[in-house]
Amino acid sequence: MSNGGFAARLYALRTGARLSQEELAHAAGVSVRALSDMERGRSRGPQRRTVQALAAALGLDATEVRELERAAESGRSRPAVRSVNRPVSPPVTRPAPQHNLGLPRDLGDFTARGAALHRLRALAEDLDPGHPPVAVVCGQPGLGKTAFAIHAAHCLAPRFPHGQYAIDLRGMDVQPTPPRDALARLLRALGVAEGALPTTTDDRSGLLRSVLRDRRVLLLLDNAADEAQVRPLLPGHSPSLTLITSRNTLAGLESVHRPELALLRREEAVELLTRVIGPERIQRESQAARDLADLCGRLPLAVRIAAQRLASRPREHLGKLVTQLAEDTTRLDTLQAGSLQVRAAFSLSYRQLSPPARTLFRRTSLAAGPDFSCRSAALLADLPLRQATGCAEDLADAGLLQPHPTADRYRFHDLLRLFAAERLAEEDGPAHITAAENRVDLWTLHRATAAARLFDTEPHPDTTPACDPDPATAPADQEQARIWLEAERAQWLTALDHAQARGLHRQVIDTAEAMHWFSDRTPHWELWAQVFQWAVNSARCLGSRRDEAVHLNYLAWAYNMCLYDHTSALTTAQDALAAARESGDQLQVGWALGYAAGALHRLGRTEESITRLQEAAHHLNKQTGAPSRLAELTVLNTLGQHMRQVGRAREALTIHRRSEAICRAGIPGKPPELIGLYLAVTRQHIGNDLASLHRWNEAEDPLRYALTHFEAARMPAWSEPARLDLGIVLHRLTRHHEAHMTLTTAHDALVRLNNPRQTEAADELHALDEVFDVAGHAIDFDGSVTPPPNRPRLR
User: Fold this and answer.
1) What is the structure's pLDDT at 66?
2) String of b and e for 501-510 (b: at least 16 CB within 10 Å)?
């Protein structure tokens, strides 16, 4: 039967089924042009899989299929190839044809990525031809995406006997490979003759789907630019696996798998170094190898470059390279070995960005801290917030920024930050950099001041959202203010430093003043000593002895409570006393006496501290006004505490009952919530006084009261010491299981807060463990009371 007979039979079958060429071509997965050529007798003879696809689309029975196949055979110039109806693992079928899209060389020293490889193996094993899997490997430059995909393709090659095909789509070029050209290369490699290639992208895509319909192949589409480039290259119904690598996330591709490539762990980075340069050099300089991994940011490309550089210099010590990489300004210069360069890899992605995204990328290298908000990015880049947010998302999609998993914040990889700083110095003049820093500094300080004033006990005219630089997004309450102040800690601290350097002394003082009540909630932050030192310096520059006295007192508190430098605290408090007396500020005189007493007590000079506290209490009692009453409460509570700790618990209890009476009477002009916190502090002291008197049952209730109120106020720096006190009392009441739970919670929290009482909690838990026998049953225990160390305090 002639080939013209096949053409006539196909035409008759199609028209008899009342199908257009377009409808039949779509149903069979062939191009319209190819079908038209068959019907006009111009095709040299369709392959058997094409005939079967047409027969299936036409709904032919077995006899009609055989007749159509015989009609096609006469026009073929090569033997018919037996089709594979369904994939098996491993399938027994024809060998893969020779082609020019073979896989690139695998790396013999490829390291890590076990979990991602396992996921791809699972895809290959459970492959569903009706839904051929597509895996997208994306991430930041230098992550080793291509190396991983090539290695995975080699590992999976035995499962794809019809061939493995790799094509570089050149997604980072100015003109990436058009899909039409990529399709032509793939189709030729798959055995389609040049003359049989359709003209349009759609027709070539349809032909590719038809050719792959019964072939078990692996496609590696490397360096994809975007979704539009790869969609035409994806199989339709086929027992195939497609691996795509891209520096962009290709988030628009539907139903794809995304094996995650993270930074190497330190031990994995050292393993890669070991495989490249040998275990002997690593063993001789094991710490240098670990330092090298860290300086490379555990980025696979950077680690490999360092390893290749060392491999080419077998006598060079690892420590020498560590020293060279430790210099930030030249680290990217050092991270190159021949044609391998970290900077070049970053530059490829940078050049793809829009001008606003490039500006934002460069300028955010100025942001302080490990991460930054979109607001800071917008201010630095001088862009509207909405546009800056879009640019940040584009940078994240390009792998140049890492989005925070829960917050609307971003961070750099260490090496990318160095690259961004290089581009900043190269492309932005000093005036632009200074302007960017000024914008973010002033905005941040105004927001920080407004947020911190929400914790102020004194009514303040600026404690309203309207006084925030952006009232629409201003923190509305203390919890929102706390979240913002914690997240932006590095940014407002840097802004404060810059403000003092630029001579904005009143701004420095105002911000520090606003912060001091918030600082009471976070005494585990060592930065408070620096904040208040800046304020002292600014007060001296302005010649304000009153401001100097205030912030010297705050600084003495920070030395005592944050740095535990009690000698400096005593010296600072004495300086505050002199400034307060010179300026005539009697309230600050009282505070200075109290802070000096705290330092004396911590230095072991307890009798002197008691005398100083008695002087402070007497002085404040003579003053009028709510601030003096609050200061008096603090001094009385501390005085009682010190007396308890020298064995004068009954006198301490009397003093703390006096404080309790002041709290219950209330202080005019002060909100009940504030007085409630003072009462909670007082009741904690009362509980400890009672415990010191061995009145265990009476001690429990006031300690629970204090703990409950501190927890409700979200003040862990205060609640956890109170929890420890309660655990000690429960221990003495022989309620061992409850005591153990309470003490364990307190200990873990105190460790996180770096509170010095963590040691006391550990000792108490150790003592409690000894009252349990080997079966875990509690044994009665009656131990002596160790006076507890200092408690957190209100100013």
Assistant:
1) 80
2) eeebbebbbb
